[in-house]
Amino acid sequence: MFHVGGARSALYNWAFALRHGGTFVLRIEDTDQSRNRPEWTEGIISALAWLGISKESPHFEGPYFQSSYEKLHREAAQRLLSEGKAYYCTCTRDDVKARTGSEYQGYDGYCRDRGLTEGAIRFRTPDDGVTVVDDVVRGRVEFPNAAMEDFVIVRGDGSPLFILANVVDDMEMRITHVIRAEEHLSNTPKQQLLWEALGARPPVWAHVPVIVNEKRQKLSKRRDKVALESYREEGYLPEAMVNYLMLLGWGPGGDREIMPWPEMVQCFRLEDVNPSPAFFDEKKLRAFNGEYIRALSPEDFAARCEPYLDPSWDRKVFARVAPLAQTRISVLSEIRDYVDFLFLDEPVFDQASWDKAMKPGAAEILAEYAERLESVEWTPEALKTALEEVGAAHGLKLAKAQAPVRVAVTGRTVGLPLFESIEVLGRERSLARVRAALAKLSA
After folding, report:
1. Which of 22, 196, 350, 357 could form an SS bridge with 403, CB 3.0 to 4.6 Å?
2. 243: nearest Cα among 220, 227, 260
3. CA–CA distance, 439 with 408 (Å, rounded to integer)
4. From CA 370, how far away is CA 391, in angstroms rounded?
5. Does a cis peptide bond (omega within 30 degrees of 0) precede residue 63?
């Protein structure tokens, strides 16, 4: 699955690349075979395309695969060895623990000057001073070198670690800007040291804020709804998701939030990204999505609803009520519950709705309205007037009088405008449903 946090980082990279005439590089870091499957790569590409980050664009390169560059990774490690910037080490975690007496202390540099010719390869970090990371979002961040252990860059089996591979790949692909999540900031001083040791100028760093839930906890795939695919399947529009994700840590200024993508690209500046944690508010995302749904043309709305409709449903009937649903739903998957009553032989009653609407007096309302339905002019206005008159005879306003009728006709207390629904359903079917509900009440 594609994490919404990864999607936000991708969008920031994409917006930055487009604004500055640069190139967005997609690299699949596939050296960990346990986390590497072709279908997962396709899932990433599909998710990016849904957001509008298309490999068909002249500003897109990739996907590249980290495993294809392993020869370069090994060559870089050997170069660091030959220049005395790295060394072989045969220490295990238990060895370090035995020497230091602590399972928490980092590597103690034991193999630095032993002159070994095999084992894992460690990078020799400076003993003193600080490594300064100039971050566009976070400003100047200092990391004391004394607190940084000599870290492994190649395993004992000869396979390069991600931290080295990432730097070498960035150098090979001429990466100028690295825009990524805050949790990677702790890796940055090590990567910067590797860049410098390999004789290259580090890229511009920008670490964007962590995304948190309502409890201000970092979004977790084990606890929170974080998969972009789940939002896509539920019926969130890509343009709404893009708009919302862009605002998780950045804003165009002023009170404006709903904004088309081209305008966001023109406004986006890394310097304006806020380093504070960004709250992923699904309620606000739903509100955004509702705004975007209502802005669709009727034809576009109907087309986007298509995956959520039953193949057997009459599309001409659906087209008549689609504009009514468009003003009410927040995600496209809700469309079924709003319109299914039109295509069923009889409504599926929601028990809570039935219990709420079918109170004492409901039978009288249904019986009298059924009589009116037999001869009333079949227009929403006439259908409404008839029920107003029935309700008034019982001292009820329309809101109270229509509750049992709505449940009888649709099965629910909430849905499309009642009288337009009855009009589309037709006289015969509407009458049959009101009478069936009346019979159920009398049973």
Report:
1. 357
2. 260
3. 11
4. 13
5. yes
CA-closest candidate to residue 362, choices 385, 334, 335, 391: 391
Q: Which two tokens stand for residue 15?
A: 């917006």
Please classify residue 15 by burial: count the beta carbons closer than 10 Å to its beta carbon, then call 0-12 exposed, 13-18 middle and 19+ buried.
Answer: buried
Enzyme catalytic residues:
221
* DSSP codes joined into one string, 308-356: GS-TTS-HHHHHHHHHHHHTT-SSGGGHHHHHGGGTSSS----HHHHHH
For 14-69, write each residue's pLDDT tens digit.
Answer: 999 999 999 999 999 887 666 667 777 888 999 999 999 999 999 999 999 999 99
Residue with tokens 């998701």: 241
Q: Read out DSSP for 159-214?
A: PBPHHHHHHHHHHHTT--EEEEEGGGGGGHHHHHHHHHHTT----EEEEEPPEE-T
